[in-house]
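Input sequence (89 aa), recorded before submission:
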Amino acid sequence: MVFTILGWIVFGLIAGFIARAIVPGKDDIGILRTIILGCVGSVVGGLIFGLLTGGLRGFEPTGWIGSIIGAVLVLVVYNQVTGRKRNRA
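Predicted structure, C-alpha cell format:
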C-alpha cells in the first residue's frame, strides 16, 4: 500500500514537471503543488482518455500521455483562475 502511494506521488511529480515544461512561462508553484498538479492531471487525463478509448490505461504509454495532457489542462486552468503567469512583453 505504501509503495503504491509513493508510486502515484512520483508519477504525479513527473507528469507535473513535464506539464510545467510544456506550458510556456515561469511557474512559482513549488514541489508540493507540482505533485498535486500531476496527480489531479493524471485523474483528469485518465478520465478523458478512459472515455475516449473505453478503459483506463495506468502505467502504459497512453496512460502517461493522458496524464500529461490532463496535467497541462489543469495547469492552464490553475493559471487562469489564480491569475498567475502573466506573459511579459
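Checked by second reader. The mean pLDDT is 78.
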